[in-house]
Amino acid sequence: MMTIPAEHIVLSCRVRLARNLKERPFVNSLSEQEAETILGDVSVLFPAKEGYRLLRMDDLSPLGRSSLVENHLCSTNLVASGRGGLILNKARTLAIMVNEEDHLRIQGILPGLDLQGAYSLCREADETIARALPYAFDSQLGYLTACPTNLGTGMRASAMLHLAGLAITGQVEPLLNRIAKLGVAVRGFYGEGSGAPGHIYQISNQYTLGMQEKELMDALSSIIDQIAAQETRARDLLLSKRPLDLEDMIGRALGVCRYARKMGLDECMQELSAIKLGVSLGLLPCPMERIDELIVACQSAQLSDIPLSGEEESAARADRLREALKDL
Amino acid sequence: MPVVQRSQGGRCQHMGARPQVGNAGASELDKCREALRTAIESEDYEQAARLRDEIRALEADA
Question: With a cut of 0.85, is the ipTM above it?
Answer without folding.
Answer: no
